[in-house]
Specification:
The chain has 191 residues and is mostly helical. The chain has one domain. The protein is 76% helix and 0% strand. The termini are far apart.
Length: 191
């Protein structure tokens, strides 16, 4: 029996590491999409110079832009890189601020959950009807749409994670990360 409480004590740490790993993976996949966009755009420029057919690049770049945006949302949110209006939060007492954070996070969770539900439904219908992209690259359209669904799901998890943290009396990670940057003298996100 002595090992059971130790396992329970490690469980939150494991959960925290798994969630942080999930958010970091989303950020890494978003960065990979941006890198691929860079490579494709350079290749397309060289291809045009060599008079090769590169019109398909625009389709792939558009899908990768959407994937980069959605896959990176949770990571950006948790690191305080989203635009937040904090004028009211800065002017109210700490207890009121905590409840305003909870209310905001609950509203965000519902909105993102709603977005994710409809994105998943729309993507499922694309798969069910075998919709094919009508542009230069003819692939099943549900494939690029999955980045939207996955990104919305991970973002919803991140918002719920933050809400639980604030309900438990903790400081939201997006606030803590901004305070850490400010403590180092980094005010670059406020430019």
């Amino acid at each position: 029996m002595p090992s059971q409480p130790a396992a329970q004590a490690e469980s939150p740490g494991l959960t925290r590491r798994a969630l942080d790993g999930l958010y970091a993976l989303g950020g890494q996949l978003a960065a990979l999409c941006v890198l691929i966009i860079f490579v494709l755009m350079i290749s397309a420029s060289v291809g045009r110079w060599l008079e090769c057919r590169v019109s398909w690049v625009s389709d792939v770049v558009a899908w990768l832009c959407a994937a980069a945006a959605f896959l990176g949302m949770a990571y950006s949110f948790r690191n305080g890189d989203f635009v937040r209006v904090t004028l009211v939060l800065g002017a109210v007492p700490a207890k009121t601020r905590r409840w305003l954070e909870v209310i905001s996070l609950c509203v965000a969770a519902v909105a993102i959950g709603y977005l994710g539900f409809w994105a998943a439904r729309f993507t499922y219908e694309s798969w069910e009807f075998n919709d094919i992209a009508g542009n230069m690259v003819a692939i099943p359209i549900w494939i690029p749409q999955m980045s939207f669904v996955i990104g919305a799901l991970v973002f919803a998890i991140a918002v719920i994670d933050e809400c639980v943290c604030v309900l438990r009396g903790g400081k939201p990670s997006y606030v803590a990360r901004v305070e850490e940057r400010h403590a180092r003298g980094d005010f670059s996100e406020e430019l």
